[in-house]
Amino acid sequence: MDIGLELLAALCALAFLAGFVDAVVGGGGLIQIPALFVLLPGVPPATLLGTNKFASIWGTLTAAVQYLRRVPVEWRATLPTTATALVFGFLGASAAASIPADAIRPLILVLLIAVLAYTLAKKDIGALHAPKLSPRRTQWTALATGAVIGFYDGIFGPGTGSFLVIAFVGLFGFSFLAASASAKLVNVVTNGAALAFFIGAGHVRYDIALPMAAFNVAGSLTGTHMAIRKGSVFVRRLFVAVVGLLILRFAWDLWAT
């Protein structure tokens, strides 16, 4: 299926927006995946997912590098989370065929509403970076966090970046800015594992993915710069907006089915 320049331009514009949002609070897939499915209905779903992963991972990697250079990373929490997220992401992908997505959506919708309510109720949450766990509890909590969110990412996926952000804020006491930095590092590893599968299976349209990747990176650079310059207040506000959109997305999916 060949696509015209106008269609490709629309996909690139949406990739820029997705890269911007994802660099700040995660949730870029909320924009980029529906765009691919709506604008390219003739392309197989697996190829659309692989194309999305290829286009988005470069923006995620760019954001991770920018955060790493400018924001102190709490490695004691980030590394164990990354390790278990990688392992359980693979396990989740393996279990995806046996656990229907329709059985997960209601639970995720409830969790997202709870996350939004908690964030709005706690006006000062994430404003300051104040890790609150002992080194031992940090490691065990990080392992559990990576296992749960990694499994979810493998079996379903939407909103994983936002769940990582709120986990680092709520469980560990990170600021929203520091949480976004750690979430990006985790996402790079887990997305890389998924992309390896899609590339190996031939499920990437490089003629679409490469230009989208360039615009995703541009959006990511813009979003990272704004997040670091404006700080945790800006990140918190965008986080609330993205979680609100995720709630609407899941509610619509439930209503439509």
UniProtKB/TrEMBL annotation:
Segments crossing the lipid bilayer: 77-97, 103-120, 162-178, 185-202, 208-227, 234-252
* Topology of this chain in the membrane: Multi-pass membrane protein
Q: What is its main location?
A: membrane
InterPro entries noted in UniProt: TM_pro_TauE-like, TSUP
- Protein location: Cell membrane
Q: Which GO terms describe its cellular component?
A: plasma membrane
Q: Is NAD a UniProt keyword of this protein?
A: no
Decide whether keyword Transcription is in the record. Answer: no
* Entry keyword set: Cell membrane, Membrane, Transmembrane, Transmembrane helix, Transport
Q: Which family does it belong to?
A: Belongs to the 4-toluene sulfonate uptake permease (TSUP) (TC 2.A.102) family.
Query: What is the name attached to this protein's record?
Result: Probable membrane transporter protein
Protein's organism: Sinimarinibacterium flocculans
Origin organism lineage: Bacteria, Pseudomonadati, Pseudomonadota, Gammaproteobacteria, Nevskiales
